[in-house]
Amino acid sequence: MIYLDHHAVSIPHPEVLRAMEEARVHTWANPASAHRLGRESRRHLETARTRVARAIGGSEAEIVFTATGSEACRLGIHGMLGIKRIWMAPLEHPAMSGAITTSGLPHQTLPLAPLLRGELPPAVGEGDLLAINWANHEIGTVFPIEALARAAKERGTRVFVDGIQALGRLPIRLDTVPIDAMAIAGQKFGGPTGAAALFIRRSTPYDSPDSGGGEERGRRPGTPDVERIHNFDVAATLLEERLAQSARGGRIARLRDRLEEALIELGGVVNGRETERIATVTNVSFLGRRGPILVAALDLEGVAASFGAACSSGVDEPSKNLLALYPGETDRAHSAVRFSLGPETTEDDIDGAVRAMRSILSRRGPLRAP
Question: Tens digit of pLDDT for each residue in 87-103?
Answer without folding.
Answer: 999 999 999 999 999 99
